[in-house]
UniProtKB/TrEMBL annotation:
InterPro entries, sorted: Aminotrans_3, Aminotrans_3_PPA_site, Dat, Ectoine_EctB, PyrdxlP-dep_Trfase, PyrdxlP-dep_Trfase_major, PyrdxlP-dep_Trfase_small
Cofactor(s) in the UniProt record: pyridoxal 5'-phosphate
Family to which the UniProt record says this protein belongs: Belongs to the class-III pyridoxal-phosphate-dependent aminotransferase family.
PANTHER family, per database record: DIAMINOBUTYRATE--2-OXOGLUTARATE AMINOTRANSFERASE, DIAMINOBUTYRATE--2-OXOGLUTARATE TRANSAMINASE
Known EC number: 2.6.1.76
Entry keywords, A to Z: Aminotransferase, Pyridoxal phosphate, Transferase
Pfam families: Aminotran_3
Keyword Transmembrane helix: no
Pathway: Amine and polyamine biosynthesis; ectoine biosynthesis; L-ectoine from L-aspartate 4-semialdehyde: step 1/3
NCBIfam families, sorted: dat (TIGR00709), ectoine_ectB (TIGR02407), PRK09264.1 (NF006733)
Protein name: Diaminobutyrate--2-oxoglutarate transaminase
Length: 420
């Protein structure tokens, strides 16, 4: 007997802006690892992972133990930007396990609790350092929902929600935007160097190495190196937004490592806190640290419980390369299944890197239908892209091989039904 789901309070009281709950109307009650359970006791395999905020899974026992112990000893919860033991441990561990092994010399700013806070700080800092206003962004980009972040995003629907002009930004074509028909940076270089082009020299360029919300668009390593060289030669700051693709999502801790570049500014959020709690950081080269005390701040920039779980995640998963190797191996498994589906059905393609993979449909409605059928069979997967034409997979990096194969079999069956 099926128990009726009571969603009355959500429809009566919660804003119409809610979105995920429309695709997944279950009322979830608990979660562990790669699974969510609704209040009726039905389990759902999670290939969404909090939009990339749960790289280490739900209620990861190692992180949970560290958090419980910290709260039990009355550790600091809210600390603004005051010195705390939890912050010290995070900074020391981050330097030891992330920055130093990669030869990265970055200052760390805690701008607020979310990815868009990190992006806003990056944009503001680039403008302050250079004295210039314009930021170059890319087609297909998504950087957040506050006005600055929205101004460098590409989605027309989200941009329209701003209600005011989104100015001082210039979009450029992302890698392969013209399907290889146009040289990568010739137009960009030409307008930068042409005094008659009307393009003011920008303060910075902001880029995602893999555009998740934009449809799992993957930038080639050589394209990223070309962009970095262009910025360096023209005194333009390069900002890499690693909010969703950082913390191991593509394999290495930072998604830009594959290109061998060192961005001037990097934004991190989502899985940096480890446990799904709000935390964000903006990293930048020391010579760019021109802030005056308190010039950019936020009440919740010192989320100490997130420092605790972030430190535990770094210690447990980033003291060696085991997670990175596992992520790349599992990513290849997803690629294999998606390639088979692409070969089996017309109008289906695939792309991705590591454990962010997209199944691309010529008919956007089919991607939506595949995700709907998958949900009916107990799998959470979302769509992305300008027309929701991509089934985007973001499983926890800790998903087991058996769980991964189970979820992929559900997606394969759903795809076969929709494309039959």
């Amino acid at each position: 007997m099926t128990t009726a789901v009571d969603t009355t309070v959500f429809t009566d009281l919660e804003s119409e802006v809610r979105s995920y709950s429309r695709s997944w109307p279950a009322v979830f009650a608990s979660a562990s690892g790669s699974w969510l359970r609704d209040e009726s006791g039905r389990d759902y395999l999670d290939f969404f992972a909090g939009a990339g905020a749960l790289n280490y899974g739900h209620n990861n026992p190692v992180l949970k133990r560290a958090l419980i112990d910290y709260l039990a000893m009355d550790g600091i919860t809210h600390g603004l930007d005051m010195h705390t033991v939890a912050k010290r441990r995070f900074l020391e561990t981050f330097r030891q396990l992330v920055l130093a092994p990669r030869g990265l010399d970055y200052k760390v700013q805690f701008p607020g609790p979310t990815g868009t806070n990190a992006v806003e700080a990056a944009l503001k800092l680039a403008r302050k350092v250079t004295g210039r206003e314009s930021i170059v962004n890319f087609t297909g980009a998504f950087h957040g929902m506050t006005l600055g972040s929205l101004s460098v995003s590409g989605n027309a629907t989200k941009r329209a929600g701003a209600g005011v002009p989104l100015v001082h930004t210039t979009p450029m074509p992302f890698d392969n935007y013209f399907d290889g028909e146009t040289p990568d940076f010739h137009w960009f270089e030409r307008v930068l160097d042409d005094a008659g082009s009307g393009l003011n020299r920008p303060a910075g360029v902001i880029v995602e190495t893999v555009q998740g919300e934009g449809g799992v668009n993957v930038a080639r390593a050589e394209w990223l190196r070309g962009l970095a060289d262009l910025c360096a030669s023209r005194d333009i700051l390069l900002i890499v937004d690693d909010v969703q693709m950082g913390c191991g999502r593509t394999g290495p801790f930072f998604s830009f490592e594959v290109a061998g570049i060192t961005p001037d500014i990097v934004t991190l959020s989502k899985s940096i806190g480890g446990y799904g709690m709000p935390m964000a950081v903006t990293l930048f080269k020391p010579e760019l640290d021109v802030w005056s005390p308190g010039e950019h701040n936020g009440t919740f920039r010192g989320n100490n419980p997130a420092f605790v779980t972030a430190t535990a995640a770094l210690e447990h998963y980033w003291s060696d390369d085991a997670l990175q190797r596992s992520t790349l191996r599992k990513g290849r498994r997803i690629e294999e299944i998606f390639a088979n589906l692409s070969d089996s059905f017309d109008g289906v393609g695939c792309r991705g890197r590591g454990m962010v993979q997209g199944l691309v449909f010529d008919d956007p409605g089919k991607a939506v239908k595949v995700c709907g059928l998958a949900y009916d069979d107990g799998l959470l997967a979302e769509t992305s892209g300008p027309s929701d034409e991509v089934v985007k997979l973001l499983p926890p990096l800790t998903v087991t091989d058996a769980e991964l194969d189970h979820g992929l079999s559900i997606l394969a069956e759903a795809t076969a039904k929709v494309c039959a």
